[in-house]
């Protein structure tokens, strides 16, 4: 027992050092993308309003109080400095790696019941390798670097804590009192996981899958023990899904659930697991926003190929399940964990690196188990060298990928390079240069989205406005508003044009309209409009 504990401490220490070595350069990164919008400009975090965090949608979109409390703590420690948030993200990620280690170790012992003391050493190796690959894989750079993705980190952490405790109940003999405490803590961790991010709602399915691998005499008891977890999942599902519908995070269009709509969903669902598998095997071309277009028709070759690939995978893993039970298990685990992000409920984006954080465990565990079995045939030295090579390669790619998240400029420049057909990179870079007043450079990027983005006409209008061409500017700002009637910036500048052309009454109406608009850009233009409106109304 002492030897096992000592080895565990050594493994955890090594995992910590490696994790921080690979992701340490994320600490110099700033806030990017939605970080400032949802975190820095949020008074609930600034003032640590714990009551509102538990009774309202803290960021206006989601009810995730566990995540929101962590933001409030960070904000009050560092007064909004990005370093504090990034340190917290890396600490949480390290804890996720630890939880993967403990979960993999208990899981391996479940799949391969112990008959000899030496087999516990094997479970230690499998768990260490699984956690190590999880720790360094580049696809996890998004949830580690993107502070807004902390919900994925926290949810995954509590998911594995809950799953590990549940497994230990049926694998480690304990007194009834200790078993009861462990069960309650597992249930509480599941609740914390759901209220960190809804993706973990599939835990009861995973637990039912695990029950199939327990000793036959315990299967019924294990399955019955999942009932409270199912109850929590159902309650959490209805609460979070209703909030998501109201916040328009997911679509509730009736046509999505017609026969044709369901067929389209299934066609996409077949393709998404293979998309992520490709990124796990070859982690290049990672992007903050992918331009991948998934076929919607079941007769499309890519859909047929994906469906055939899944059928073959199930048939092959079923055939070898006696000697390699982990293969079928990992396939089922992977697909179950992907269920919330297979786009049955339409979300934007369709795919994202953060979505694969939890499901990716099955990939690393499969590699670790296969590696241990192969080592007995080809030798441990060869497998150790091969594993080290993979880990070093992934680590170098991850270190480079962390640099992509340094700023909005580096992030969206990289996104355009890897996903040139996606509009988000052009739009966000254009907005970045627009905010900096670099209108010519902003226009270069808005040219790519000029057919639908209101910022294109806004930028042209600002160039005309600065050149003193007020009539031209008025027409361009009006076109911008025509594309988005709630575009506060365009409404504000149109008000300036009318004010400068001697029409203060029209300008005042536009300023009042801008004040009522959603507080985009931290509410800057709404505040500016309020100042101009005050000036106009105070004139004699």
Largest sheet: none
What's the rounded overall pLDDT mean?
87
Tally of individual domains = 2
Q: What is the tally of beta strands?
A: 0
Radius of gyration: 26 Å
Quaternary state of the chains: single chain
**What helical percentage do the residues reach?**
over 70%
- Provide the succession of SSEs: HHHHHHHHHHHHHHHHHHHHHHHHHH
SS content category: mainly alpha
Estimate the global geometry from the Cα principal axes: elongated
- The first-to-last residue Cα distance is 86 Å
Low-confidence stretches: none
Strand content: under 5%
Q: Would you write up a description of this structure?
A:
With 540 residues, the chain is mostly helical. The protein folds into 2 domains: 2-410, no CATH class; 422-538, Serine Threonine Protein Phosphatase 5, Tetratricopeptide repeat. 71% of the residues lie in helices and 0% in strands. It contains 26 helices and no strands. Helix 6 packs parallel to helix 9 (150-169), helix 14 packs across helix 15 (301-319) and helix 25 runs antiparallel to helix 26 (524-538). The longest helix has 30 residues, at 82-111. The protein is elongated. The model has no long low-confidence stretch (mean pLDDT 87).
